[in-house]
Amino acid sequence: MSQKNEQWGSRWGFIAAAMGMAIGTGNIWRFPRVVAANGGGPFIIAWTIALFVWAIPLLMGEMVMGRKTGLGTIGAFRDFVGRKFAWMGTWICVICLAIMFYYSVIMGWCIKYFTLAASGTFKAGMGTEATEAIWNTFTTSPWQTIPLHFISMLIAGVIIYKGVKDGIEKACKIMIPTLFILLIAAAIRSITLPGALKGLEYMFSPRLDMLLDPKIWLAAFTQAAWSTGAGWGFIITYAVYTKRKEDIAGNCMIMGFGNNVGSLIAGLAILPAIFALSPTQAFTNEILASGNTGLTFIYLAQLFPTMPGGRIIGSIFFLAMAIAALSSLLPMIEVGVRNLMDAGFSRKKATITIIVMGMLLGIPSAYSLDFLNNQDWVLGIGLLVSGLFVAFALMKYGLESIRTKMINTEWTDFKIGKWWSVCVRLFPVLFVFITGWWIWQAISWDPENWWKPFEVYSVGTILFQFVIIIFFGLITNNIFTRAIGKGRDITQLPVKEGK
After folding, report:
1. CA distance 453 to 455
2. pLDDT digits (tens, 9 = 90+) for 106-156
3. Sign of the CA dihedral 359, 163, 29, 226?
């Protein structure tokens, strides 16, 4: 089978890969902290709504674009909405690869902490000062962080190098069931601890009055985009390898629900344990306000050893994080690889190019936490912009035509109503409201420095980097549209390929 005609071996293989795309460290590393910081139950309500209003409709739209064009993000925009809009596909590719540059660093952290937990480095009685010292020593030791970043990129690169069926699909068929088993084991241990009920109550108590806070909705929509892969270009890319008879609606529903179930299990593995094992309420509050790195790598490292069987549970947790990071790193690399293949590269040459680029451009994030935090800050909003571009492409093509002819096919088990078209039309409104409110808030946090482009957390750094990416996309638009070859409309393949 040529590189043009690579395909998933089975529907389960595609779904496993798509689930691997969705369930990453964003679910395990990010979700519990965001839930905790936004009131628990109210956030889960808003986040569930965001799944149906933003994430699942966007995943369906991306899958349509990938199948209709048979090309990666740049070629998909060129052929789906016109040559002059190919730069939007470039934006999506650049945002995805920019996340890849630091995501492999985070995978390296997970590998390191798995070895620390398994070797018994974390002991009962260790306080915040001790675990924070371990964290600070590790993250300020480039001789550790950079090689681990290289190792992470290399592991993912080997899998991508082997191709879709023999690489990504085989790896995800093993990793995703393993990941769920590990998370469920950690969650069962967590919720059976004495005092865990407080964590469950916090996580699921509705407190509906808090839904009036726009901050919760911003956090919910950002998390939905971050963790499901909506707007990343993943599904545009993975859809290129699907067969003719593919249930777009059913597959995207499974992806969305699977992602949210994975997130909830991760939350059950962490939040009840925090409430059960924290010596005081003040300590609990300190943990919940500590942020991504603090919650996972500083506080959990001292809480796991206080749990019966904590060394094993801690090892399981950090191993699950490493697997989750790898399963999400694969599609990030594949987005870049697919675009290079569209331009005439072989899979092997494209993979080596992206891996080398990732290794080199990931060094700043491996070297400096400030640089990594800046990228995490900027690119989260970048994903919402990516979603807006996909929505624009879908609306320009014709939403009802897409829904009735491309999603609701004769072999589709799950028919989609007009709510899909309504949700996509709402994207620009939601984007303006959510990002507008967020920018206003960010300016009010630091009115003197909000405009500075080289501050770690500022509106100025977002605008500065966005202008660079848009400028790059515009000046390369004609170059890329000419370089990328002709795709194939998967929906027009012979019927026998869909069997």
Report:
1. 6
2. 999 999 999 999 999 999 888 888 988 999 999 999 999 999 999 999 999
3. positive
Q: What is the pLDDT of residues 334-379, one digit of tens each?
A: 999 999 999 999 999 999 999 999 999 999 999 999 999 999 889 9
Cα angle, residue 101 at apex, residues 99 and 105 outer, rounded to 5°: 105
- Output the CA angle 28-34-39, nearest 5 degrees: 130
- In angstroms, what CA-CA distances link 278 with 33, 201, 311, 355? 16, 16, 17, 42
* Both tokens assigned to 417: 């109503």
- 199-220 pLDDT, tens per residue? 999 899 888 888 888 788 888 8
Q: Which segments within 72-185 are labelled E, that is strand?
A: none
Q: What is the DSSP letter of 209?
A: G
SS3 call for 7:
coil
Give the C-alpha distances (Å, rounded to integers) separating 99 from 61, 75, 287, 329, 366. 22, 21, 26, 9, 13
Q: Which residues contact 496 (CB under 8 A, 6 or more apart)?
A: none
- What is the enclosing helix (H) or strand (E) of 108? helix 86-118
Two tokens, residue 29? 């590393």
Instruction: Give me the half-sphere count of Cα atoms (radius 13 Å) on the Cβ side of residue 292.
Output: 16
Torsion 491-493-496-498 (CA) sign: negative
Token readout for 82 is: 């016109």
Domain boundaries, given as residue ranges, for the chain:
3-486
The torsion of the CA quartet 223, 229, 231, 236, rounded to 10 degrees, works out to -170
CA distance 206 to 451: 37
Q: HSE-up of 389 (CA within 13 Å, CB side)? A: 29
Angle (nearest 5°) at CA 127 between 121 and 128: 100
Q: Do 295 and 325 touch, CB atoms closer than 8 A?
A: no
| Contact partners, residue 422, CB within 8 Å, separation at least 6 | none
Cα→Cα distances 254→7, 15, 60, 227, 384, Å: 20, 8, 11, 14, 22
* Residue that the structure tokens 């995978």 belong to: 107
Q: How big is the chain, counted in residues?
A: 499
Residue 417's identity, in one-letter code, is: G
Task: Say whether pLDDT at 311 is over 70.
Answer: yes
Q: How far is CA 140 from CA 144, 145, 371, 372, in A?
A: 9, 8, 13, 13
**Longest pairwise C-alpha distance within the chain:** 65
The residue type of 31 is F
Q: How far apart are CA 493 and CA 351, in angstroms?
A: 27
CATH class of the domain whose range is 3-486: mainly alpha
Got the DSSP string for 123-143? -TT--HHHHHHHHHHHHT-HH
Is residue 242 within 8 Å of residue 8, measured between CB atoms?
yes
CB 262 within 8 A of CB 420: no
